[in-house]
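To: structure desk
From: M.T.
Subject: fold request, one chain
Message: Could you run this one when you get a chance? Sequence is below, nothing fancy, just the single chain.
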Amino acid sequence: MSQAPDRSTPPAIILVHPQLGQNIGMAARAMLNCGLGDLRLVKPRDGWPSESALAASASATRVISEARIFETTAAAVADLQQVYATTARSRSLSKRIVTPRLAAREIVTNNGSDIASGVMFGPEASGLENDDIALADTVLSVPVNPECPSLNLAQAVFAVGYEWFQALDETPPEIVSIPKETRPANKQELVGLFEHLERELDACGFLRVEERRPIMTRNLRNMFQRASMSEQEVRTFRGVIKHLVRGKPD
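Reply: Done. Structure tokens follow.
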């Protein structure tokens, strides 16, 4: 199971003029999914506190209860030294544009230099204004299907938060689950299975074509190697071979 990153200070999430309370709640839930907790709201349209935001936040009630309210975007980012502004639209402002993945790497690196970071998101219907973007150092754009480039607020927050989480997460990309009652089969046990199977295949004539025999046995061994068998599975399969050889009872 993933462990929450703890080697980097999470970026602040700044929602500028968010509209529906439930959208704020779902964004808070997306934040906590990714280990983010610093939620800053700039003049929520429907006021604050919001019962609909709390209801939509699921288990992220702490993010909602600790959210800070600001009158202006400038006030919300005043203590930050590196600010990213999210937008899907091209702008006339001259700003470098990065993906969430690159932004996440920069945030992690900047934290090592005690640089506080934040990511701004605009209203659901219109996005950030140019005056808000002017306060940012960098524009952040999520690469998605150009035929459907619009993300809702929670999706956008999750896309950014997930990349930050992944930049620190050490969960193995693949985990093989072995029951406690057994263990991964060792090579001696696997070779025993291979030899058992090959003896019976010889006996029934399956490997009778001598020039094909090395290729066929090698393919069979490779197939079982890829299966990552447990010790219990090896014993079970050897039992299957024995019963197949024995045949049906009279």
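Reply (cont.): DSSP finds ten helices and seven strands in the chain. Let me know if you need anything else for the meeting.
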